[in-house]
Amino acid sequence: MARSKTSKKWLDEHVNDPYVQKAQRDGYRSRASYKLIELNEKDSLFKSGSVVMDLGAAPGGWSQIVAPIVGESGRVIASDILPMDGIAGVDFIQGDFTEASVYEQILNSLGSSQVDSVISDMAPNMSGVNTTDQHASMYLVELALDMARNVLKPGGSFCAKVFQGVGSEAFTKEVRASFSKVIVRKPAASRPRSREIYLVAKGFKA
Fold first, then answer.
1. Helical H segments across 27-129, by residue range
2. Any catalytic annotation for residue 8?
3. CATH of the domain at 41
4. Was 60 annotated as part of a binding site?
5. I need a surface site. Which of 9, 89, 115, 179 has the fewest CB within 10 A?
6. Does 62 count as an annotated binding residue?
7. pLDDT tier at 11, thresholds 50, 70, 90
8. What is the pLDDT of residues 91-150, one digit of tens each?
């Protein structure tokens, strides 16, 4: 079946993307790894010994960055609806965390631990209908914030991908209500035409 012009354009852009090529050379599972590297360098989201929750983790590009940094004294709890190949030092829970059973699994894996940082690179399966996609993306990031409010320790941090559009400004205000400092970032590895930004929130007000 012939590819549409749009999908061919995306494929050409993807193959020629310098961050895709760099990820292949560096052994990272995703070009998104470079987004988190930059965010952590600027905002110190996690360090040795941190407990980090990675939502929307598959294929593992972010967990790959976190696990070596937090080390054996830290923990990474990752979750996604899609499968993910194992990463040393990462506890992975597959399932839809909007379902109570999966949510409970994630909390049970934490045990008595509180989380230093919740990170989310979640995005819905894009339909191509802007209003539908925006609604779906805001729903996911709101769930990520809800999880963060439930598991973060006082002073903890939250970093999530947000697509600018309907609901994004209201969501940013909501995040500001729960954290002492909120910064908007657009990492270099984010495609310039993408509406994605990353909200980095520090100082959780438990």
1. 33-43, 61-70, 100-110
2. no
3. 3.40.50.150
4. yes
5. 9
6. yes
7. low
8. 999 999 889 999 999 999 998 889 999 999 998 877 778 888 889 899 999 999 999 999
